Amino acid sequence: MKFINEKLRAPPQEAAHGPAQSSVSAGNCGLLLVRITFGLLMAGHGCQKLFGIFGGEGLAATGKSFAGLGFHPGDVYAAIGGGSELLGGLGLALGLFTPLASAVLIGVMINAMATVTAAHGLWETEGGVEYNVCIAVVALAIAAIGPGQLALDRPFRWGKGGWPEAAFALCLGGISAAIVLSL
Length: 183
Prior knowledge:
single chain, mainly alpha, 8 helices, 69% helix
């Protein structure tokens, strides 16, 4: 009976999994993999716009594309978009200022959906919003879950994730997208 009473008083994690261990969990490694993959791909996408590397067109050509979408001056909006993808992606990959990095990526994806992909439906094969939705949802989920144990944000309050962090990312991303779309 003494053993049962001790297990009932143990914190939930210890009761279910034995004594707490300092090793990194599979969940934290999985979260790191998601952050690095999405973050670095977004950073690379930003580099395509800004620097013309990884098969990108560079800032001048991207600026002309943005101007064709109604963003004037196109070069300025291309720099903002590319910089947002680069910095937001790096922040997500590193787990640094995670709610802010998530907000930046959400805002960029809302803009991409509103100006380019929404007219083509859902599926990426038709030029639709599928890819943009996936990135925005992953960014929002990481803000809600938190960047995990293997992140630079770990010691900070916002490094734990939660409803406030998710709400911050979604609201700031939505507001910034609305501002850009209204200009």
